[in-house]
Every structure is written in C-alpha cells, then in structure tokens.
User: Fold these one by one.
Assistant:
Number 1:
Amino acid sequence: MRFPAELQRHLFEPSFWAAFFFEPQSPKGPDDDRWENVNELKVEFGLGGGYGLELDLNLGYQYYGLGVLTPAQGSPACVGWDDQAHFHPHVFRWDELDQICRAVALAEPVLRHPGAALALLCRYTFISDHDDLDEITPLVDGAFTTLRPEGLSADSYWPQLRDWFDRSDLRRAGVIWTRSEYGNWTVHQDYDAGTSGPTLYSTRWAPESAGNDGFPFAEWREMLGRAQQKIDDAIDPTWRDVPEVARALSDITANRDLTHAAELAQSLATAGCDNLVILRALADPVHPSETCWVLELLTGARPGSLIKAFLGPSPLRDARLFRLSLTLDVVKRPADYDRMVAKEIDRELRAAQLGSAILTGGSMREDWKGSFKWLTASIIIDIRDDFDAGLRIVRQALRSRNAAGKTELRHYYEPFDRVHF
C-alpha cells in the first residue's frame, strides 16, 4: 500500500474534505488557501500481486483521478475522474465498491472498512434503482463517522451521509446497468424513459470490442477477481466447525444481537484465527456496520444482507432532492444584491435543515459606453425532501428582497418547468 503520511494527517482535517468534495459553503479559515499547492498526492489501495486502485489527488487544481492497477500495466488505466468542468465520476456499481473496500481492509488492516477507503472512493459510485439503501447507507455513514475527529466545532465542515446521498442519487433518472456478452457491466441512461434528474457521466458505456480504448474492462475484471480472492482467502471454513464459534454465530444471527460479538472474537481466536481485521471488527468496532460485514464474511451471507437485517431501514429511504434554478433580475439593484439573496435563501434553508443555495453566475450586456452591466444572477437551490416547505422559504426570501421583473424559478432538470413563487 502507498498511503502517504501527509494524506493520513489530512483525513482528519475538515478543510481537506471541504476541498475534496468541492464544498462551497465551508466556513472560511486561515488555511483556506493551503490546498492550492497540493497537487501530487497519490494513494494506492492495494490488493496484493500488483492489483488495486490508485487515486490521484490534485487539490490545487481540484481534479481527482481514479485508475485501475494490474501487474501487466506500467501505469494506472483511467476509469474515471472528478473536477468541476468535464467530470466523469460514475465508475462503480455499489457492490463492486463494497467488495473492493472489504478486500483492501483485509489486505491492509490499517484501513478499516468502513473507513478511509470508502470515504475517498464513494465519490465514484452512485445509487441507481436496483440498489438497496438499507444495505448501503450504514457503510457510508460509518466511513465518515470513523474518521470524524473528536471535538469538531459546530461550524466546521465534515462530510455527512446526506451530503453524499444528494450527490449520488440517480434513482428515477433512467440509469440502467447491463451485463454484456463478455461478462462486464456497462451503464447507460435512458432519456426516453420519461424520467428526469441528474445526468450520468461514466466511461463504462463504451462498446466492448477489440482495440476499444474506452473503459479498461479486462483490467477491471481482473482487479475484481483479485478482490474476491482476497475475501475468500480470509476465512478458514474449519472455524465454523468449532462448537463455541458455531454457537456464538448462531446467537448473534438468530437474535440479531451484536452484544455477543466480543464472545465470538474470543472463540475465533481460540480456534486459531489471528486475522486482525476480523477480531477487531467483532471486539472493538468503531461503527456497527464494521461488525456486520465481518459477520457476513464469517457466515457466507450475501454482502449487505446482515447490515440490513441488523441495522434496519435506512433513514434515507424516502429522501429526495429537488434542484431549482433561480434567475434573479439584478438590473438597477445594489452591487451585492445577488449575494444577499443567495445568502438569505441558503441561511434559511440550512436553518430548517431543508437544503442550501449557492450563487453560480449570471448574464450581462455591454452598453453604449463599452461597459458591461449585469442583467441577471443565477442561484442553484437544493430542497431536501419537503418541497413545499422549502419553496415557502424561498418565496419568503424573495419577497423580503422585493424580487420582481425578470426573476424566475424553474426546475433544474428536464422538463425545466417554471415554479410559481
């Protein structure tokens, strides 16, 4: 594993995560500019034998590239990247990401799962209609919770499960996974399905053929095979034949009671298990999902099934994000009028835990003197779950600022319907 000591320190710094996730609303502080010159941080999530993933962090340029590693390659083969211009971050199926993070933890015990690997790599996955949130959200929540430092101030940014969900939710957006004749999963977005929502940006749509220079399907398939082998090799089947181990496993799974996990760890150690990842997850977990995935490993249960059974329904089962585009008339308004409107909407939505708003630009024209005058400002508004309640906040803010003229509010995604305010 190549995990730079510098990056290990950054994992506990709020400003690092604000920069990593392009968080525009992070509080300003004395180290805001420190990331401008951090352009060459590379971390390898190794699976052994030359297989793994490499994450290239260019915080100064706000570009984060992901590549797959195999022994036959001299350098990583690009599978996706994220920036704020030409991003293609939709790389993983969820089951692939979970599989890789489990295998990475088994290969490198210093990296817990859920933990640093999932926290860094989850930006390259997304939720589609076939995914089960009950199996997914406990692990993502656990990844951010595991890294969160104690004593974090209330005004410091820290990534939350809901932040990730709002960026990654492509349900109802016509996203379809298809298994090809070669055994590889490809993904595309059906724009004729009558759905609306975020756009899929992935390199995994490319046709598979000889000489294809798109997504490296062969290398990806090899890497996933290595990950599964690492998982399979972690378990000695004879452990389950030890009466104390079998009894403890039965008590836990039958009663859905994790209080017996430490007892199971002792029984496994007596049976000859010296795997730090397994014993630690049972005896000293940071998050209950850590215990659950190791129980799945020990019992042979389908990944995610015991997480769902033990931890119950996801709090985000019915969550929705409604994105609106506000075009604000700023003609003959004070110079900071657009910022004040955006700030008020953002403040009130956040206070009600209903969303956020950000000023993104606008339009201008040149007058007869050659000077440019702003005509409109653009504000992106996100409303979480309760659209009507969020819209009331937006309406009130616009009324309090006497917004009128060409100001209009529309849905951000197709069919871009106008919203009355």
Note: The chain has three domains: 5-231, 237-273, 321-419.
Number 2:
Amino acid sequence: MRIVPLLAAAAAAYGQANPDPSAVLKQALERLRETSGQLEKYVCIETVERSYYRRVVPREAPVLPEAAQACGPPASGARDSLQLEATDRARLEVSVSQGHELHSWPGATRFDARDVDELISDGPVSTGAFGGYLAGVFGRPGVSYRYIGEQTVDGKKLYEYGYRAPLDGSRFEVRVDETWRAAGYEGEFRLDPQSLELERLTVRTTELPAGAPFCQASASLDYQRVHVGDSDLLLPRRSQLEIVLQSGRETRNVTTFSSCREYQAESEIRFDTTAAAEPSTAARFGRSRVALPIGLPVTLALTTAIDTAGASAGDPMAAKVVKPVKRPGSGEELIPAGATVRGHIRRVEHHLLPEPYFLVTIAFNRVEIEGSISPFFARSEANLELAKELDANVAMRGSGVRLWGVGTFLFPSRQNHIVIPAGFESKWFTLATGGR
C-alpha cells in the first residue's frame, strides 16, 4: 500500500523540468529506506583490494613533533608524496541481517555473528559498503540533510545534498583495543532528480573516540542497479575507503560486488562464535572420524595453482596428501596417500618495500578419506631466515590456537605477480583434530 503514493509523487517529479529539491529529497529518502531493507534477502561476493602507502617527507620539509606528524595537517604537497608499500586482496560472502552485515568465506552457506576482522585478521577491514552505509545515512533518526546545489556529471544533471549524523547512537563504530566505540560522520550524496536514483555517496568521520588507531576515514561509493532474480538491487559499482593512520601511513580499500543471488532454501544464518566450514561437511564430522595425534608430519601438494594476480584471502584451496600418514609406534595408516585436505587462503600479499616479495598463507580444516570427512588442523612453519632477510611479518594478528593452523610461504620476486604451480609441495605438522 505504501508504494502507491511514492509512485504518484515520483511521476509528478518526472514531469517537472526542475523538480523541487526538497520534494526530491523526501521522495528519495522513502525509496532508499525501503531499498536498504531489501538487501536482507540477498548474498553477494565482496572483493576488497587493499593498498598500503607510506608518506615520503621532502628533505626540505621542517621536522615536526611526532604527534603533529601523526594526525596534523599534511605539509604542502605531502599528499602527493605517498609511496606504495604493499597490496593484498580478500574475498568474502556478505549479506545483511537485522541491520548488520554478516560475512563468511566464499562457498559456505552459513553466516555467523563474528566480526569481519575475526575472518580477515590482518590489515584494515570494514563493513558498510554492502548496505550499512545506506542504513546509517538514510535509515537512521537524527540525521540532518541540506541541499547543496545542482551538479552536472558526464552530461547528467544531479542534485547534491549534504548530511550530518550525530555521535549519539551512531552506527559508525571503530574498534579501540577490544571494544567498538561510536564515531560521528558526515558527507554528501547525489540524486538523479528525475528517477530519484542514488548516484554517489560519501562518508567521512568527524568525531573519533579516544584511542582510535587512525586520524580519519572517508569512503566514496558509486551506485548502480544490479538485476538479481526478479529484483533490481541498489549496490555500489565501486566503493573506496581511505584511512589515515596515526603513523602517517595511509590505506585504500577498493570494494566491488559480484555473483549476487537470493538466499536458497538450504541457506542458514547462525548467531554463534564458531564458524562452520559447510553444512554438509559439519554433518559428516564424526562419521569414520580420524583421530590425529599432535606432531605428525604431513606432506601436501597443491591441486590447483595460485596466481597472485587474482587470488584472494577467502578463496577455497585443496591439496593432496603425498605420503601415507601413520601412527607412531603401531604403523597404523591414519591418512592414505592421495587423500584430499581442504581449506582456504588466509593471506595473499605483494610487498614492494624494502625488498619485493609475495606472501601467501593457507589454512586447512578438513580431510576427505574415501568419502568421509574429518577435521584436519596442521601448521607449516615459515622460513624465518628468509623472513628476516625480507623484513617480512609472518605472524598472524590476534591470538588463539586457531591462528596456529596455517602455513605461510614467502617468494622473493620483482615480478608484478607470480604463479605457485599445482603440485607445489610443503611440509606440515598436525596440531589437533578439533581445530577449525
């Protein structure tokens, strides 16, 4: 019933050469508030390309106190003197439930309520591009709006508006130590006055909580309609998030969405703290379960190549067991040669400074033996001498046993990308049978 007056109002706007900005805003807000709620029915693949920059200070620039260097205004021309240090990429599935974005590794049909930084434990991560920004700007009480003026972009007339969200009840949150704290934000958005479509949205922080690890964060999102099933979703064509860190370094995250789909009947959202790999896998844990002692050597060979030009954290990964794994003392065969272990990539990084190299981290969580599936938790030690030579950080951020179940591999190279071939062998040691 609510859609009838909206369509009537929109039709009236279409007939005006210069629609009233206040009327356009009112109609568009109604439409955007309904749009943000529609996203709860859909899942998309979210790919985040991250770049890390360090600031290069000109020799003639005055030496500033450390505090001023961190969050003070940059010296003239300093913003143009950023040097790319490293890049990486992450890929997740994303959806919205009860106003919050939920994530999982691609291929899983279950979401859980863990924060995204528990899935991607290294580098800057954020939520909001899929639907959080829409809800925070257009669906939140207390946000104030103002008309700025008319803009012409690529020959198209657009209306630009400003907005400001108060700190009280803010949905923009920053992790400080182990807690999330609210931050104030403001920005602008552009509307097509004829179709009422949102074309562009910017978001930037205004008030940060004490102890925030960065000085400022700003996001820009360019929107488009994406046809999924019988509906057209409003999604960012491209979203860019820029963060200025306390150290003076900057990061830029570019997010895109693909492979959107409606929830299927077998999909499920879990609100717990344990991430299951897949429903079918979880159901088969315990059927002919293999109990693996700690410390058994396992040689694995990748079944598919990893091309760093496109590989991402979150991509599924599989390997074959090269040699039978036997129980010490009895010689009982626990895992036969040829069994498949499965998991996903945790890190794919390209470092340029001080020495160029690629870093790839893989985690496996299950082994398939003659049709049955058992947990598999193992670790492959990084080459610490090479890590020291490259000044590489091979440690996973955070704590807990689950962060030990990884293999980290370093590849010095001056190429733009490398390919780790199928058949690449690595030596692992089992840690436990209950890890994920």
Note: Helices lie at 3-14, 21-38, 66-71, 116-119, 132-138, 279-284, 384-390.
Number 3:
Amino acid sequence: MRAEFVKWQDELDGRLRSAEGLDLRRAKEVFPFWPFKWSLGALILMMIAHERRHVFQAREVRQNPSFPQQ
C-alpha cells in the first residue's frame, strides 16, 4: 500500500511540474460526478488538502496504542 501511495505522489509531482507556466486560474476542469467547472489551481489545492488529510489519518492510526509496533 505504501508503494502505491508513493507512486501516486511521484505521478502527482510530475503532473504539477508539467503544469508550470499554465495560468492555473484560467485552465478549467470538470469532475464527471460534479456539474461545476473548477480552475486547475483550485483542483490542485483540493488534492493537496485531501492528501494531507490522508497523511494525518495515517499518523493518527500509527500513534494509537493498539497499533502493532514493529
């Protein structure tokens, strides 16, 4: 699972680097399940917040006294 997460982070990093120079406010994207157009910049910020939340949750789980220690 960790390897998949790291792979996703590397892919995301590559995509963000390839967006360098784009006007992130003007570039638009539509979610297939949401009828709104979002700026690419807003989507990137949401993705970062979402990933940050996952990392926070993983840390909470690992700090739980009942989590197996290696």
Note: The chain has a mean pLDDT of 85.
Number 4:
Amino acid sequence: MHLRRWLLAALLPLAACEISTDPGPRLDPDAPARLTYQLIPGGDPGAPLGVLLSWDLPTSGRANAFNIYGRSGSVGNWTLRATTTSTTFHDAGTPEEQYYVATRDANGNEIGNSNVVTIDLTSSLPAPNGLGSVSLNGAIQLYWSSNAANVAGFDHYRVYSTDYVVSRSVCSANWVLEGSTVSDGFLVGNLTNGVSRCYAVSAVTTDGHESEWSASVLDTPRWDARNAFVYSRQARPDSAGFLFLDEVSKKIGSVASTTRADLDFTIERHDDGSLWFAPVRSGVTMMLYAATPVGDLTSIDFAPASGFAAATIEAVPGYAYVFRVQKNDGVHYAAARVAFVTPTYVVFDWSYQSAVGNAELNVIPAR
C-alpha cells in the first residue's frame, strides 16, 4: 500500500510536465506583419486613383528598408514596385492585383516576407438612393437616403458636381469632387445665384471601395431673404411697394415708395382691416401657392405652369404666394411666405430666381 502511494506521487509531476497548450504558428520576427490595403477612390468604382499599403514593423529590429512587390494576376512573376523606409506605400494609378512586402537588412539582403494581399475592386455598397436638393441663396442643400450607410463596411460619402449646359439641357462631363461627409446631407456653398449645376453622390467603404453614383439632380440657387416687411399703402405709402429686382439700382429685394411705376407689388388695406398683395405693373401676375399653410420658404418648390393672374390676394400668416415677373431680359419667378400680419404692415420671407425662365424656387427631385 505504501509503495503504491509512493509511485503515484512520483508520477504526478511527470504527468503535469506533459500537459501543454499549442501556441499556434510562430510569427517570423523579420517579416512585415498584417499587410493591408486601402483603395484611393477617384469617382470611377472600377478605376481607383491608387492603393495605400500598410504593414507592421518587424519585431526583430533588423529592418533597414522594405521592398514592395506587385503582380497583375494571381500567378506570374513579381515586379519590384518601390523601396521605402516607411511602413506604408502609396501605389498611384490602377493597382496591381496582388502585393507583398519584403524586409531588407542593413546589407540590402531580404530577410522576411509579409503575407500576400489580393486587391478586389468590387464594392459591397449600393449607390445612394433618393438624391434631392433644396435651392438656397448662393447655396444648395443636398440630401439622400441612408440605404448605403446601413450596409456593413460603410465609411463616408463623396459628393460630385458639374456645370449644366443650358443650350443642350445636359450635365457636362466635367465632374469634380465637392467634398465628403458621413451624414446623408451636404451643403454646397459659394455658388452664383441663377447658375445651374448638376450633383451626384457615391458611398465609400472603410477600405476605399467606391459605389456607383446616385442618380444626378440639377439645381439652381436663387436669391432670398427673411423677415422683410412692407407697410400698407394707406399707412405709409413711402414704404408700401416692393421690387424683387430693382433694374435701376440692380439691388435684389427693395422696399420702395408707391410713387414708382416699376413696382412688382404693393400692400393694400381693405375696409375690413385685412392686408392684401396687389400686383402693380402689367408684367406681374401672382397666385396662391397652396390651399394650406406651408412650413417654410423652402417648402415652395417649382412655380406652377399656369394659374397666374393680376388679381390681389389676401396676406395670411403661413401661406405662400408665387409671382411671375416680366423683366427686360425675360420672365422670372419669385415666391413669398407670410410670417405675420399687423394692422399696418406684412412681414414675409421671399425668394427670387435670377435665371431667366427658370421656375425652380426650391427643390428638384431625383432624376
């Protein structure tokens, strides 16, 4: 009995020594580790501007430089693309299909190779849907659906624009990058009122894969102002007239005296105390934009194709009005939304489209 206990005690340390955990494959301390890539988007999903390779510094401390190799297919000879002392490399132009990185020591000998990465140009993101726009004063607000952002790997959007060829009614091929954003909206500023541009949006993954572009939209910024006020002619005739464009001074949005014959409209007070918009000259007609109040000046999109008249219309808070204005260079469209009405004056927001014949006052839907 005592012998058996002694043998068991003697065998236990041996058994413990035989228990081990497999640490897995050992990493080469001279090899660049975790080689990855990120594409550089350039507008064409199938032709990025280049690729950025990144890797970890070898742990041995013997690295003096790195050779970057690439090849155009999954088989074939490798070509030396560059040598660098950095742990990143930007390969401009159309990327190779495969890359790897080799470590060089102080004598120029290659002492370790990284993993091979294969460049896949296929994007996993769909094109953004529902691109629309809001016309502003010297600016355009773009907005779109978040369908691409809901897909795994999404990182940001890229916004493009080009000029619009009015004579041929087409967007030109001169697309440029306006900027990028992580939200589903983008404000394009520093624009010239009355000049149309086309816009489109793409989505980009964290590793640089760019989606196809959204459908494009055309938009034209226009003049506007908030909280203008015009007195009734009966209260203050010197400040009861309004011109969307004063063709004498070239000023946009002018309050003027009712003695002027070139006014677009005046504010008239009826016997019951209500205040009314009244077109003045023969080239100005107007109409109620909608039968119900609108939330904001930007709720007024296109001027209607018909329905304008020279009749007066009561100024009611929350309601919107659209004007057809004949100027020396042609027809222009304008809009107003009444903020509030007092016994003697009307406060309103207004917009004016300086592009001849352009009925766009706010939003153009996706095409």
Note: The longest helix spans residues 2-18.
